[in-house]
Fold this protein.
Amino acid sequence: MSPPMTEPPTEPGIVLTEEQKRRRRARSLAIALSLGALVLLVYIVTVVKLGPGVLNRPL
Amino acid sequence: MSLASESTDLAPALSGDLPYAEPSMAGVGDYLALMKPRVMSLVVFTALVGLMVAPGHFHPVLAFFALLCIAVGAGAAGALNMWYDADIDAVMSRTAARPVPAGRVQPGEALAFGMTLAVGSVVFLGLMVNWLAAGLLAFTIAFYAVIYTMWLKRWTPQNIVIGGAAGAFPPMIGFAAATGGIGLESILLFLIIFFWTPPHFWALGLLRADEYARAGVPMLPVVAGVAETRRQILIYSLVLAPVGMSPWLLGYAGLAYGIVAIVGGALMVALAWQLLRAPAGAAADPAAKRLFTYSILYLFVLFAVLLIEQVLGLRQFGAISIGVFS
C-alpha cells in the first residue's frame, strides 16, 4: 500500500536565473520565427508548384 | 557514444556528475554554431553551382527552397557530428570552445536538434522538389554523421578520403533538385571536391598533428608520418589538377574556366611539391599553411568561374546533358 500523501515539498525546485530566462525567451522566439517562416515558405512554394492550376477547380 | 567514459577533460555537464538536467544555457548563437555555418556556406555555394549548371529551367523560388533544404541538411550533419565528437573536440584547441564540449549545449539537445533538422530538410526537399534530391541529401547526412563521424574518423587514416564524399555530394544534390536526374556534369563536380579534400585536410592535419594525436584521431600525419603525408598530398594534387580541368576538357565549361583550371591546378601541384621538399619540423609549417589556404581559394575560384560562365552564357559548347539516371 502506498504511503499517505505528505505535505507538498517546500523546496522551490529548479529556479531559472534571469540569464537563463532571457536565453529561453530568445530560443522560443527563434523557434517561433523559424516555424512562421517555414509556413510562409511552404505556402509560396505550393503556389509556385501549382501555378495557374491553383485557380483551376470546379466551383 | 563515449562521452561519459573519458570525463576528466569534459565540462561538468558532459561528465554525468550532475543528478539532474541543468536548465539549458544555450543561446540562439550556440545552435547556429552547431550547424557549422562556415562549412554550410561552402555547401550552399557548391550546391548552387550544381543547380545552375543543370540544363533546363528551374523556378527561382524552388531553387531557393532546395538550397535552403540542402543548407539545413548540412547544418544537421554538423550538429550530429558535434554531438558525437564532443569528447574529441574537448581536447583539441581548435574545437574546445564548440557549444557541446564547452557545456553550453547538452549532448541530448544537440542530438535532438540535428535529428529534427535532418528529417525536416529531407522530407521537405522530397515533398516540394523531388525525391531523388531528397534521397541524396539523406544519404549525405547519414554518410557524414554515421560512416565518417562514428566510424571512419576514429578508425582509419583514410577517414577524410572516404568521408570526403559527404562534402562532394552537394553539387550533385543541387543538380538532382533542378533536373530530377544525375548528369555527368554533377559527377565531375563531385570528383573535383572528392580529390580536393585529402590535400586540403592533410595540410591542416600536418599543422595540427599533435592535437589529433592527443585526441586519438588516426589522421595520416599521426599514423604514417609527415613524409608520407606530404607524398600523398602531392599524389592527390596531381590527380586533382586534371580532374579540375575535366569540365572544360569535356565541353561543359568555357575557355575562362579552362585557363583558371590549368593555372590553378598547376599552382596546387607546385605548392604540394614545395611542401614535399620543405625541411622537416616546424620549418615546413608555412608551406603547409600556404597549401591549406590556397586550396580553399582554388576550389572557390573554380566553382565561381563555372557559375559566372553559366550566368553570362559563356559556356563553350552550351549545356550538353548526358543524363546518367535521368
